[in-house]
Amino acid sequence: MSSTHARPRHSLDDLLELAARVGFDWPDTRGAIAKVREELAEVEAALAANDADQAREEVGDLLFAAANLARRLKADPEQALRATNDKFERRFRHVEWRLAEDGHAPGSASLEEMDRHWEDAKRREKNPTEESLNE
Questions:
Q1: Are 41 and 71 spatial neighbours (Cβ–Cβ below 8 Å)?
Q2: How does pLDDT run across 63-76, given as a tens digit for each residue?
Q3: Per-residue CA distances from 85 to 80, 82, 89, 90, 115 (Å)
Q4: DSSP state of 131
Q5: Are 39 and 61 in contact (CB under 8 A)?
Q6: What pTM does this model have?
Q7: Which run of H or of E encompasses 73?
Q8: CB atoms < 10 A from the CB of 70, how many?
């Protein structure tokens, strides 16, 4: 197809809604979850084959499938990602704070040590009666 006849690019939401409108959609969330698993397996297969280009392409498919799952759950994928970014930043600040208390910087701490503090941050978020994450 020549560039003069190319179709306009659609947003992710537009594509997902278009597909759903014409019935190209899963009947329930189980189908969308299965598609996410399928796409993740394809990423893993590409990595096992040491095919970085294919893995990158499959990651795009995985993200698209995850966005479709979000749509099925009535969650805005962009808003969900922004909320996750905020959560990551909050937890990472906690990791940095705890490491500083121990006399370490993130670059000098082991992954296990950082992960322990990360899990502590998650636990504190789920149980807000514990010490504040912002101490």
A1: no
A2: 999 999 999 999 99
A3: 9, 5, 6, 9, 17
A4: S
A5: yes
A6: 0.76
A7: none
A8: 19
